[in-house]
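Q: Here's a chain of 410 amino acids. Please give me its 3D structure as tokens.
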Amino acid sequence: MTALPLDPARIRAQFPAFAEPSLQGQAFFENAGGAYTANAVLTRLDHYYRATKLQPYGVYPASQAAGAAMDLSYARIAQALNVSSDGIHFGPSSSANTYVLGKAFGEYLKPGDAIIVTNQDHEANTGAWRKLAGLGIEVRQWAVDGQTGRLSLDALDALLDAKVRFVAAPHCSNVVGEINPVAEIAARARAVGALTIIDGVSYAPHGLPDLAALGVDIYFFSAYKVFGPHQGIMAVRPDLAMALPNQGHFFNDAKLRYRLTPAGPDHAQIAAAASIADYLETVAEIAGDSVAGADPFRRAHAAMRAQEIALAAPLLDYLQRKNSARLIGPADPALRAPTIALALDEPGGAVAARLARHGIMAGGGHFYAWRLLEALGIDPNHGVLRLSFTHYTTPEEIDQLIAALDRELK
């Protein structure tokens, strides 16, 4: 394994889970379902509940402090994503956020307009849009290759024309794992006057992207998969957020934060999300001069990706030699996130249960990528085994996983 830019001991010291007695000896390989929470996030959450758990933005000091704590999160998440703070929206989950967006676009688009969706997505970024067909919107499917699960830019070009109003696609699939060329997708969409809506849920845990560089119009992800609280976060271009029909109370029509998140997300969790940015700055500090980047968030991104590529290499090498397992997605760790799915003769859930006897926490199922598994010729009810990790995983845990797979895969 190549040298790691991040010291695992210093990284893991930022997470209380790694000091939890009940988790000792347990290697966590279901991070795609939700990552461990950073200590800095828990500290902010605890403080909010203890000191400011009341209605924010009032006239008395505790209420003003509560509002300021929430405002800080909007600013800090915006800083990490390189967008303006008025483009950040907190909601109860990514699925809820896209449902609301789907309703907004249903009121915004006109019959005869076209949209492009993929069958590589988690259902949250395809189901909400496909429902627009009932309103007379033409839904075009950008289909994956049935063998590799890959999305081809040539196939996208064949679907784009002046009728297309937006392209919805994943930054990377929660099963295929391949990192899609989002900047290229956005450029192609923009060339025909279309918007780009990107699901970053499976990418963001591996480094928050520079959205200005990607050129997307909407980017969303789940805070609880990025070491934070259980909420969804959207970055929506402010002029677009104002152009879409208001989904909140009519008297909040001029307030960007309220127009696309009518559910009233938890105030304490919004405040705690500021420490996602704090944690990423700590990652950049631990990385030091081992990686380059224009700011701490870009350096954290580079360090996390380099760490994960080094960790994934021996696992992917092992899996390529395992004839009983069909590796979904690329075998080159530089081309993918470390979310690694295997198609097996046995149901994925059954193998995950056996791996648990070896202290491996993994998952099996369809992972809400039902349409993708069908396209790959896999029964969604049979599912896949998914092994997912992030930068806080250690080389020893990779060895532990390989040893368990060697015993349990036929």
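Q: Can you summarize the key feature?
A: Residues 309 and 333 are 5 Å apart (CA to CA).
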